[in-house]
Each structure stands twice: as structure tokens, then as C-alpha cells.
Amino acid sequence: MFSFQGFRFALIFCREIEDAKELLGQESLDAILWPGYWGWDEDWEWDDKEPWTRLLQEVASFCQCPIIQANFLGDNAIKNSDGSTLGGSVAVSEKGELMGRSTPRQSTPLLLTLSKIAEKSKKTE
């Protein structure tokens, strides 16, 4: 965990997202940053039955903060089994809803606005 410009972040690499609830506990975070080496393809649907979707929803809801998941977009050094380099990063709200998604197989921006913990707690009071 670290702070930057008044925001509190947790950085989770790759498969450690599966242990995020145990690793982070009830820490007060503004967002979880989750870089990965793989990605979502064009056919992937945001579906509650899909295991990665459920995992993202669970962790975001448990930690009560958004997850920004940045995927590897290849340089021919690492490829998926089908030869593609996927990418297609996603952002998930603290309620587990898909907030944004970049385009798979190409570099595209994914811009988000985050709220600070202090601002969140004022809204709930």
C-alpha cells in the first residue's frame, strides 16, 4: 500500500488478486491497482457467472474501493497460447460494476476520476 497525491492505493500483482481480501483486510483505500500480464479478448462479456468478473466484484465490494486492472499489451516477447497479445484493461467500481474498459489488442486510454476516502466518508454521514 502507498499514498500518492493524497490518495491511498494498494498494488496487487497478477494472481495475488485471489488473496486480496486476506492481504488487505479492512484497509481504507481509494483504489486497488492490479497490473497483469494477460487480458480480456473482444468476446469477453461482463457476466456475473464468469469467474474473473465475480472475483473483481467480490474484492471491490469487500474493500469498498474501485479496482483498476491494467493488462499487458505485447511486444512479441510474451503471447497468449493463440498468438495474440490481449490487453483490454478494465476498471470496476466499489460496487463491483464495470466503469470502463479499454480496447483489446491495441493501446487505448482508460481515464477515471477517483474520490478520496475523506470525500467518501462525508457523503455517507
* Class based on secondary structure composition and strand pairing: alpha/beta
Unreliable segments of 5+ consecutive residues: 121-125
Strand content: 15-25%
Mean pLDDT across residues:
78
Question: How would you characterize this protein structure?
Answer:
The protein contains three helices and six strands. It has 125 residues and is of the alpha/beta class. It has one domain: Carbon-nitrogen hydrolase (Nitrilase/N-carbamoyl-D-aminoacid amidohydrolase). The protein has a six-stranded mixed beta sheet, with helices on one face. Helix 1 links the parallel strand 2 and strand 3.
Describe the secondary structure blueprint for this structure.
Layout: E1 2-4, E2 7-11, H1 20-24, E3 31-36, H2 51-63, E4 67-71, E5 90-92, E6 98-101, H3 117-124
Parallel strand pairs: 2-3, 3-4
Antiparallel strand pairs: 1-2, 4-5, 5-6
Keywords, please?
125 residues, globular, alpha/beta, six-stranded mixed sheet, disordered C terminus, Nitrilase/N-carbamoyl-D-aminoacid amidohydrolase
Briefly summarize what is shown.
The chain has helices at residues 20-24, 51-63, 117-124, and strands at 2-4, 7-11, 31-36, 67-71, 90-92, 98-101.
